[in-house]
Structure formats: C-alpha cells, structure tokens
Amino acid sequence: MIDVPSPPATILVVDDEVEIRRLLRACLERDGYRVAEAATGDEAIGQAIRRHPSAVLLDTGLPDMDGLLVLRRLREWSQMPVLIISDSDHHEEKITALDSGANDYITKPFHAAELMARLRVTQRFYSSPGSAPKAFEVRDITVDLTSRTVMKSGRRVKLTPTEYSLLRLFVQNAGKVLTHRQILREIWGFYTARGIGYIRVYLTYLREKLENNPAKPELFLTEPGIGYRLAV
C-alpha cells in the first residue's frame, strides 16, 4: 500500500497592507504552507467559508470592518485557529480579542520566527477542537485527562479538585493566553476584579507542585495585565 502524502495546510492571511501579505506569504510558503489572501473583512469571511483554512492570520485594522468583528463572525460557525496581528499593544484590545475567541495575539512589528512558532502551537492543539490530547506532555510533566492523573519526573502529583480543573483548562488551551475573565468563568463561574486573587493563589499552588523553580516559572507564564499562558 502506497502512502499518499497529505496536502499542505492552507493559511488564510487577512491584511490590507500588500507588503505584510507578501512577507507572510514568503514565511509561510518557506515552511511548506499554502497561502490564501484577503484584504478586507468580507473577503476574509468568504475565503474562510470556501477554503476552510487550517488557521487564519487576522489583522484588526481592515478597511471595511473591524478585525474583531471578522473574528466573531468566524466563531459563529468555526473553531479554526485565529491569530490576531495588530498595530495596537493595548491590554484592553488584547483581552477583548482573546475573550472573543482569538487563539493568540501578536503586535506589529513582529519577528517572523516567533509568529511561525505561535502558528505551529495553535495547529498542534487544534486536531480535536474543544478538547486536548488524552496524554499531554511538556518537559517532565505528563497529564492524562482520561485517568485524571498528573506525573512529574515519573512520580504522581496530587492535586486538589480546583487545582486539577485549572491545570486541565491550561492543557486544553496549551500555548494560548487565557484572560483572567476566561479563567474565572470556566473554573469559578463568575467574574469580578477581586476574583483575580483566586487565580493568583491557585497558580501559586500549581507552580509549587509542577515548576522546577516556582520563583522563576517556565511553564505557567504571566501575561501582565491580561492573564496566563501554559508554555509548550
């Protein structure tokens, strides 16, 4: 039986600047991707419907509509990875984008290698939308979501129900920034500014049990003013 190679993944690049689209096309094609392009929000939605890309690189400053509106329209019917590329570095815009369903957020000017790395991370965990691999491994830690077991360096780690729920949320969104609002609503079912203290307390517990050096975390990373990310 002859193995037929799978076709290269298609990435939809949405940006009204021709130079940016050319740069992204060159980077993506060099890494073996196919590239579709759109310069407006309407064109982006049409391309996404027709081509079902493996991921979308989406600029927020489009001429016909806000990029976040495009994101919300996409999320009405698809969970395809969407990476926001924006001129704005404002925390509120980042939080709004992530709460609206973006998988990641990167600001211009960006380093091409970093963008490609973030794209690979989102695709790695998109094979089964809304779920995570049954056995997730990062460094010396293994999380088995089927048996609800957590191992570090081959030894089982005991977590409280809340600690485990928080860890599972990070695993299911590995590599993605989770906002304070998302975490509170998923784990505690509410959002208030004071509730951010709950997250800090339980992140401290997870770091103490899973980080090699809790004072200098390398797994559970803080995104200042926004939330946290599980590094992969």
List the helices and strands and how they pair.
Blueprint lengths: L9 E5 L3 H13 L3 E5 L2 H11 L3 E5 L7 H9 L6 E5 L4 H9 L4 E4 L4 H13 L10 E4 L2 E4 L4 E4 L2 E2 L4 H12 L4 E3 H8 L8 H15 L9 E4 L3 E4 L2
Parallel strand pairs: 1-2, 1-3, 3-4, 4-5
Antiparallel strand pairs: 6-7, 7-8, 8-9, 10-12, 11-12
Helix pairs in contact: 2-3, 6-8
CATH architecture of the largest domain: 3-Layer(aba) Sandwich
Question: What's the number of helices?
Answer: 8
Q: Based on helices, strands and strand pairing, what is the structural class?
A: alpha/beta
Strand fraction: 15-25%
- In CATH, what is the class of the largest domain? Alpha Beta
Backbone shape: globular
Element string (H = helix, E = strand)? EHEHEHEHEHEEEEHEHHEE
Percent helix, as a range, is 25-40%
- What distance lies between the first and last C-alpha atoms, to the nearest angstrom? 36 Å
What is the CA-based Rg, rounded? 19 Å
Describe this structure in words.
The structure is a single chain. This protein is an alpha/beta fold. It has 2 domains: 10-124, 3-Layer(aba) Sandwich (Rossmann fold), CATH 3.40.50; 135-230, Arc Repressor Mutant, subunit A (Orthogonal Bundle). It has helices at residues 18-30, 41-51, 67-75, 91-99, 112-124, 161-172, 180-187, 196-210; strands at residues 10-14, 34-38, 55-59, 82-86, 104-107, 135-138, 141-144, 149-152, 155-156, 177-179, 220-223, 227-230. The protein has a 5-stranded parallel sheet with strand order 2-1-3-4-5, with helices on both faces. The protein has a 4-stranded antiparallel sheet with strand order 6-7-8-9, with no helix packed on it. Strands 10-12-11 form a 3-stranded antiparallel sheet. α1 links the parallel β1 and β2 (34-38). The longest helix is centred in the last third of the chain and has 15 residues, at 196-210. The chain is globular.
